[in-house]
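Colleagues,

Please find the record for the two-part complex below.
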Amino acid sequence: QVQLQESGPGLVKPSQTLSLTCTVSGGSISSEDYFWSWIRQQPGKGLEWIGYIYYSGNTYYNPSLKSRVTISVDTSMNHFSLKLNSVTAADTAIYYCARGERANFDYWGQGTLVTVSS
Amino acid sequence: QSVLTQPPSASGTPGQRVTISCSGSSPNIGSNYVYWYQQLPGTAPKLLIHRDNQRPSGVPDRFSGSKSGTSASLAISGLRSEDEAEYYCAAWDDRLNVVFGGGTRLTVL
């Protein structure tokens, strides 16, 4: 059974960079069959796709966030990471990592709340 | 404003059949598969329906999906109290984006 676990700071100051890691267990991130995604949910709001990455490093980003987002993968550690720079209060959200792409996300992490505040 | 449009709320009594609609356009629902997610309070979303009408292993057959043109629907039959949750539709948009509906909060009366 594939499991995903997000980790990283729960508090980030405005204008700084949000950094999260998603560790995958029970399966290999190097599988040719899957992409690995980040999705967020602002408090009390709906879901917003951030982007996804293939084990080879190919990435696809939400056009509205593309200028601020970097997703990377470390196959040796079986994890992938998210960096979102120049954050504002609007980036306060629960950040989920998930397996999948093109709206098909079959395994999700439990999510981690990141608050942007000074 | 979400790209896919869902009613904000729906309700039903135990045993009833409830449907939730999801309206999109040609580049998303009209051209790509629709997926449905169930989010119980305080938990991560769970894939409920994939490829318009397919249920992942473990999802009860009370849940079914359908699509016609640029709209899709999720039907829940034999409604149970544990079905009370937020439901989201999602699709790939050919403008290179994953788009979600705004979510529908289902209340079991």
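The mean pLDDT of chain A is 96.

Comments are welcome before we finalize the supplementary table.
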